[in-house]
Design brief:
Blueprint lengths: L2 H5 L12 H16 L2 H4 L7 E6 L5 H12 L3 E6 L1 H4 L8 H8 L5 E6 L4 H8 L4 E6 L5 H15 L6 E5 L6 H10 L6 E5 L8 H10 L2 E5 L11 E4 L10 H7 L7 H7 L5 E3 L23 H18 L3
Helix pairs in contact: 2-13, 4-13, 6-7, 8-9, 8-13
């Protein structure tokens, strides 16, 4: 089976769909696209229209998808905040919305606050559906861009040692990254979070089955000296019903310039899916190891260009 057969016409809902071979093939496509002159790329989605349905706020994921489509010569139908400005306000179901939108487009990219909505959308659609984040479920393309960033820097995704900090319970990107790294051997992730926001027991048990080593730590002092990447995340205010609890937990672990200088290795990537809300000092931004405002968002566009080219691309 070649790369076109693996991806062409397919939905992208979860990292569960991927194996090691498909991730490696995708990353080769990203590398190829990054090296291809802009004018040559414009033919890939010529004549294609992709709908962006974002029921939750987004800056990077929305913008990078729109940019990816347009850099490949495609066009977009864009609905941001459909809860307020579409027929959803009138009571239209997600199933009916998807069936309508598919009449006008060749694929749908959807973000929704409810876990499972992307999967439900894919089940009713006759065109490819891409999950741009479903509640606290998964965010497969964010995880893929993050792991491509690690791969591009270190040239491998096995024998990786990573640190993940913050809201691990609600972090959909966290869930997807664990699944992605579990496809490769001998990987270890160190987990640092408030007790209330640690990975669920279900997630921890699933990771054991996937044979990826997860090590829960309690303080900065326990951070290993030789991590390939640090992955900081915000405590997600929108997932809390008790706002006082959020205020208590939101800045439990702050990444400072002093901590980077003390504990990060010279080749440690400092990453964050963004937005940040105080958990990384701006003084860290100029550190050459910090890639959350530069390489990560740029690779987000390239990973999505690669996926669109494989799922919909003109030969």
């Amino acid at each position: 089976m070649n790369i076109s057969e693996i991806f062409f016409g397919k939905d992208i809902i979860s990292l569960d769909q991927f194996d090691r071979k498909s991730v490696e093939l995708l990353f080769r496509q990203v590398t190829k696209i990054k090296k291809t002159p802009t004018k040559k790329l414009l033919k890939i989605l010529s004549g294609k229209i992709i709908a962006l349905l974002f029921f939750e706020p987004s800056t990077r994921t929305f913008s990078s998808n729109a940019a990816a489509i347009k850099r490949l010569g495609g066009q977009t139908i864009e609905h941001q905040n459909p809860m307020q400005n579409s027929s959803v306000v009138k009571g239209e179901t997600i199933e009916d919305t998807i069936k309508m939108i598919e009449q006008y487009s060749d694929a749908i990219v959807i973000r929704h606050p409810l876990v499972g909505t992307a999967k439900k959308s894919a089940q009713v659609a006759n065109i490819p559906v891409i999950n741009a984040g479903d509640g606290i479920g998964e965010h497969p393309t964010q995880a893929l861009l993050d792991m491509f960033t690690v791969y591009e820097k270190h040239k491998h995704l096995n024998n990786i040692k990573g640190l993940m900090v913050g809201d691990l319970l609600n972090g959909r990107t966290i869930h997807s990254i664990i699944k992605c790294l579990s496809l490769f051997p001998n990987n270890t992730l160190y987990l640092l979070s408030p007790k209330q926001l640690r990975l669920s027991n279900k997630d921890l048990e699933e990771a054991k089955k996937r044979k990826i080593k997860l090590v829960e730590i309690k303080s900065f002092e326990e951070i290993p000296a030789d991590c390939h990447f640090w992955y900081w995340t915000r405590v997600q205010k929108e997932r809390f019903t008790d706002k006082r609890e959020y205020e208590k937990l939101k800045l439990t672990f702050i990444l400072t310039k002093k901590l980077v200088e003390k504990k990060a290795g010279k080749n440690t990537l400092i990453m964050h899916p963004l937005p940040r809300v105080g958990e990384i000092e701006t003084a860290v931004d100029t550190d050459p190891r910090a890639v959350y405002l530069t390489t990560e968002p740029k690779n987000g566009m390239y990973i999505r260009m690669a996926l669109f080219s494989l799922i919909l691309g003109n030969s």
